[in-house]
Amino acid sequence: MTLDPSKSIAGLKGALRYVRAYRDHVFVVKLGGDVLSDPHSLDTVAGQLALLSSLSIRLVVVHGGGTQASAIARRLGQEPEMIAGRRVTDDAALEVTKMVYRGLLNTDLVAAFRRHGVQATGLSGVDGDLITAHRRLPLRVVDDAGVERTVDYGHVGDIDKVDPRILDTLLSARFVPVVSSLAGDADGNVYNVNADTVAESLAIALKAQKLIFLTGAPGVLRDRNDPSTLVAFADPDDLAELMASGALAGGMRPKVEACIRAATGGVDRTHIIDGRAPDALLLEAFTGSGCGTMIVGRKEKATYLGVDLAD
Q1: What total number of domains does the chain contain?
Q2: What is the pTM (predicted TM-score) of this model?
Q3: Three-state DSSP class for residue 222
Q4: Is the dihedral of CA 90, 96, 98, 100 positive or negative?
Q5: What are the backbone dihedrals phi and psi of residue 62, each rounded to the nearest 5 degrees, phi first?
Q6: Which domain holds residue 98?
Q7: Residue 142 included in any domain
Q8: pLDDT tens across 178-191, in order?
């Protein structure tokens, strides 16, 4: 198949206004388990992020790794405990989490960036007092058997504050921080923190222009079994009905909620896209049509649509 050079040039010209708008701004990108577990997807995403970095976009990459932590735990003879969709992190599970998040996955991600000529550096929320958290209090939940009970989730943390100075230092030196979803407290305790929440909190603290979730889904769907029902653009009011109806189930709901909090907390635009789709990140960033779901606050929606809020 012969490429049409005129179309390539037209594409470059069309992307120019986005390049100008994004230069020296911060994008926080959260990589989901579907991307981390597939070497091909990870490599292609790293290549797209390398291109963004070459355009002077300041990147912060966030990851968890629950699926990989569960696999390693089983190899060590430990069966992961999940209650109401949430992981119980006891002493043994915390050790596995630290090994997998900060060790295995973080190193693999930094290596993927190095393969594409990007100077990345791995860290967690414990480094440089980046993320301070406290141990989550026991919760009343309805378990998978439909029984309501009190659950202690162990070393699971809820974020108290973010100190972004270490990220500012790295970004100013043109490094790409790769942050695993662990946090600490003043007593030296380490906590397992939801990676979506980490990404949202860092995006707000850094006043990021974009918060992007790379997932295994095409975006927000009105019918999660029908990709043609993709919601391409929404604000919090638009999503309230979907959440009330139960359409946002499983791991999608916390991502949407994180996007809403970020969009109302000062982040210009938030995105949920399929990180496995070819060039999905570039299409979402550099084309008007995009390829996933963009969630914005009311003010940014008015700017995007050219609407006067006084009307």
Answers
A1: 1
A2: 0.90
A3: coil
A4: negative
A5: -120, 140
A6: 23-208
A7: yes
A8: 999 999 999 999 99
